[in-house]
Design brief:
Length: 393
C-alpha cells in the first residue's frame, strides 16, 4: 500500500484537514466527495490545530445521519429481467418472502418484525441507490449513524441486510455487493440478576408479570418466543416431577426440560384458568392476553425507571432476556446444588443452544468445568465450590 492510498483510507474514517482552504472535511465511506465540517454555531472549522473540534463535528454529523448517498442513473449491467433493481426493491422482495414464511409458520414472527424495522431504516438511508451503486462503506456509515445500536444489535442488523441481498442473489441472480461484510464479534452475555435485584423486580410489578419473570429465571426459556407460548398441553407429569415440552421457533426443535417443585406449583395454579385443550398460554398479562415482546419489553423498561436502574451503569443494561442469562449463571455456578456447576453440554441442552454458543456466551466467564482445568494446570488444585452468596456476585 502506498503512502497516498493509506492516507485516503484514513481520511474516509476520520476528519481531515485541507491546507488549500485551511478547513476540516470528511469523506463518507463509499463516496468520493468531501463534506465540510461545521461547529455548533454553523461556522466552518478552520485551523490545523482544531482536530478535536473537527472530530466532534464529525460525530455530530454521523449521529444526525446528515449525509445520504446520491443515486446515479442505472448503468448497463445493473438490471435484472430488463428492470433496474434498487436497494428498496431488494428489501421489499425479501420482506414479502419473510411474510410468506411467517404465514406458513416456518419463520418466527419476531424475525419478520425486526427485519421490517431494520430494512425500512436502510431504505430511508440508501433505498434509492441501485444495487450496483451500494457499497459496504454505505452500510458501515449507516450503522455508525445509530450510536444506540450496540454490538449485538449491529450483528442482528447486518445479518438481516445480508440475508436480503443473499435472497436477491439466489432468487434473481443479482450480484451481492455486500458479500464479505463483517459483523462485530460476539460479546459474552454477563448480565445477571442478584437475589436482591430479583426480589426488587417482584415487589415493583404486578403478579402476572412477576410470575412471568420468575418462570423465565427458573427455566431459562427465551421469554417471548418460548415461555410466553407454553400452554397446559405442553405440561407432562412424571414420577420424578413436572416437565415441559418446549418448541423453539428459533431453532425449530423441541426439547424437554424438568421443572423445580416451586415452578411446578406455580404452573398448577395457572392451569386452573388455562386448562388443557383451551389453547390459552399459561402466562398472561392483567388483560388476560399473552405476553408480547413489545409490551413485555416496555413493561420492563418502565420497571427500570421505577427502580432507578436506568441511572446505573450495570443495571441499565438489564432486560427481560437477562432472566435467561441469570439461569445460565446460576446453573454454571452451582447456585442450586452446593456450588457444583453443570457442564456446558448440560446447559446447552436445557436452554436450547449448541454447546459452542453456550460456551461463547456464558462458559468462558462462568463455567467451572472450563476454569477448573486451568487452575489444575497451574498446580493450584481443584477449585473449591463457591458459596451460594459468591455465586450471586
Amino acid at each position: 500500500m502506498t503512502r497516498n492510498e493509506k492516507r485516503r483510507r484514513t481520511r474516509r474514517r476520520s476528519a481531515w484537514h485541507w491546507k488549500q482552504t485551511d478547513c476540516w472535511y470528511y469523506t463518507p465511506q463509499g463516496a468520493k466527495r468531501r463534506i465540510p465540517l461545521f461547529d455548533e454555531q454553523g461556522k466552518r472549522i478552520r485551523g490545523q490545530a482544531n482536530k478535536q473540534a473537527a472530530e466532534l463535528a464529525l460525530a455530530r454529523a454521523r449521529l444526525a445521519a446528515e449525509w445520504r448517498p446520491e443515486p446515479k442513473e442505472a448503468a448497463a449491467g445493473e438490471t435484472c429481467d430488463g428492470e433496474a433493481w434498487l436497494v428498496a426493491k431488494v428489501c421489499s422482495e425479501y420482506l414479502q418472502h419473510c411474510r410468506r414464511r411467517t404465514e406458513a409458520e416456518t419463520m418466527n414472527a419476531g424475525y419478520l418484525e425486526d427485519s421490517t424495522r431494520y430494512l425500512n431504516e436502510l431504505c430511508k438511508y440508501s433505498g434509492a441507490l441501485s444495487v450496483a451503486e451500494l457499497k459496504k462503506g454505505h452500510v458501515q456509515f449507516w450503522l455508525e449513524s445509530h450510536p444506540s445500536w450496540r454490538s449485538v444489535t449491529r450483528r442482528n442488523v447486518i445479518t438481516v441486510v445480508l440475508a436480503a441481498f443473499n435472497h436477491a442473489q439466489r432468487e434473481h441472480g443479482l450480484k451481492n455487493p455486500l458479500k464479505g461484510l463483517k459483523k462485530p464479534p460476539c460479546q459474552p452475555r454477563l448480565q445477571s440478576f442478584s437475589p436482591a435485584d430479583e426480589q426488587a423486580l417482584y415487589g415493583a410489578t404486578d403478579r402476572p408479570f412477576a410470575d412471568f419473570l420468575y418462570a423465565a429465571i427458573e427455566t431459562g426459556l427465551r421469554p417471548f418466543c418460548e415461555l410466553a407460548r407454553v400452554t397446559a398441553d405442553h405440561v407432562e407429569e412424571t414420577s420424578r416431577g413436572m416437565m415441559w415440552r418446549v418448541y423453539a421457533s428459533k431453532t425449530k426443535k423441541t426439547r424437554k426440560i424438568p421443572l423445580r417443585p416451586e415452578v411446578a406449583k406455580l404452573v398448577r395454579r395457572l392451569m386452573k384458568s388455562a386448562p388443557r385443550g383451551s389453547g390459552k398460554p399459561l402466562f398472561r398479562n392483567s388483560q388476560d392476553k399473552p405476553w408480547k415482546k413489545v409490551t413485555g419489553g416496555e413493561r420492563f423498561r418502565k420497571l427500570k425507571v421505577k427502580l432507578g436502574w436506568d441511572q446505573d451503569a450495570q443495571r441499565s443494561r438489564y432486560s427481560c432476556y437477562t432472566c435467561r442469562h441469570t439461569f445460565a449463571h446460576r446453573m454454571l455456578s452451582g447456585y442450586r446444588n452446593g456450588g457444583a456447576g453443570c457442564s456446558i453440554e448440560t446447559l446447552a441442552e436445557l436452554i436450547g443452544d449448541t454447546p459452542k454458543t453456550a460456551f461463547d456466551h456464558y462458559g468462558k466467564e462462568w463455567g467451572q468445568h472450563y476454569q477448573e482445568p486451568l487452575w489444575a494446570a497451574m498446580g493450584l488444585g481443584a477449585l473449591r465450590p463457591p458459596s451460594r452468596a459468591a455465586a450471586d456476585q
